Amino acid sequence: MSIGIGVIGTGVMGAEHARILRHETPGAHLAGIFDADAARAQAVASGATVFSDPQSLIASDQIDAIVIASPDSTHASLTRACIAAGKPVLCEKPLASSAADALEVVKAEVGLGRKLIQVGYMRRFDPGYREIKRVKDAGSLGGSVLLHNVHRNVRAPDWFNGPMAITNSFVHEIDASRWLLGSEMVSARVAAGPGGEPLMITMKTDKDELVSTEVFVNASYGYHVHVELVGRQGTISLAPASLTLLNRDRAGGLSYPDNWVPRFEEAYRRQMADWVSAVKAGASVGASAWDGYVASAIAEQIAGALAGGGVATLKYGPRPPLYD
After folding, report:
1. Which of 118, 116, 61, 34 is nearest to 83 (CA)?
2. Which residues does the UniProt record annotate as the domain GFO/IDH/MocA-like oxidoreductase (predicted)?
């Protein structure tokens, strides 16, 4: 049976999710589209129903599950509407535009008594990240000591300012680090380079592991994400993501994409396929609403530390039993 998926928001990520649903996701089909720009929605729909508002899409009998890829400020209200309708959700990160709003989403899901929300932290589905997780969990590296992260973008858009390097980019490293290590972050230090970047963020876990992350959103040369796990008996890291090595004009090397979509194309495909399978089974995969809340809560506190003394003791309350 093919389940009908509705996509809310048809910007870069919404359009990519719609493409994956149309061409690369057996067992599901693109059933509905909504975007505030009706012409853009129509261009992405490719035969799917174009809805006049998100609430009618959520309520429609054509729609079995929803992908939310609309602006960050709409995520909390739309996920709560999906919870009220009893429909599963794949929500692009962040879960909400503030940790307080994300916690309200968690409370709504806890009140329902079952998990409907998956947050789109797609690195959990990337083959390289998954292999690091497998090797770490197998214990062949001994106890984990350090996790090094690098997050570099070509350039930040004009609207990307203030703490967004932390709350919109670094949240990926927060989620990936918690998932890879199976640990919780308890404290953080943050410092900025000349002119405000790059950022260097160091977190300590509840197991005394160290997590270092460089966030450089105007690195110029390309989109580049890297991670290395250091254990007592060895290390494991991502191999270069480029598919080829180019030799030309007396030089050779790797190539880097302009943004994250080509780099994580396979992760997005696997994320969608696994989510659809989970929806059919009434199960859950990937980052939960609680994970989404914790990532936002940690990011907010570190952003506050950047504006203050550079040090934060991280607090986000006990995890509800639903997420055990």
Report:
1. 116
2. 129-236
Write the DSSP assignment of 185-208 as a string of letters.
Answer: EEEEEEEE-GGG-SEEEEEEETTS
Q: Where in the chain is the domain with CATH 3.40.50.720?
A: 3-123+267-288
Question: What H or E segment, with its residue span, contains residue 276?
Answer: helix 265-281
292: which residues sit within 8 A by CB, 6+ positions away?
A: 91, 93, 94, 95, 96, 102, 105, 117, 119, 121
Per-residue confidence band for 158, with pLDDT thresholds at 50, 70 and 90? confident
Task: Look at strands 234-237 and 224-231 and give their pairing.
Answer: antiparallel
**Would you call 236 helix, strand, or coil by DSSP?**
strand
* Ramachandran quadrant class, 186 (left: phi over 0; alpha: psi -120 to 50; beta: rest): alpha
pTM, whole model, 2 decimals? 0.96
CATH number of this structure's domain 3-123+267-288, picked from the four choices 3.40.50.720, 3.30.565.10, 3.40.30.10, 3.90.1150.10: 3.40.50.720
**241-254 confidence digits (pLDDT tens):** 888 899 999 999 99
Residues of the chain with CATH 3.30.360.10: 126-258+296-323
Q: For the chain, how long is the longest CA-to-CA vector? A: 63
pLDDT of 149 above 90: yes
- 47-59 pLDDT tens trace: 999 999 999 999 9
Instruction: Give dist(CA 12, CA 139) in Å, integer.
Output: 39
160-174, pLDDT tens digit by residue? 888 999 999 999 999
pLDDT tens, position by position, 286-312: 999 999 999 999 999 999 999 999 999
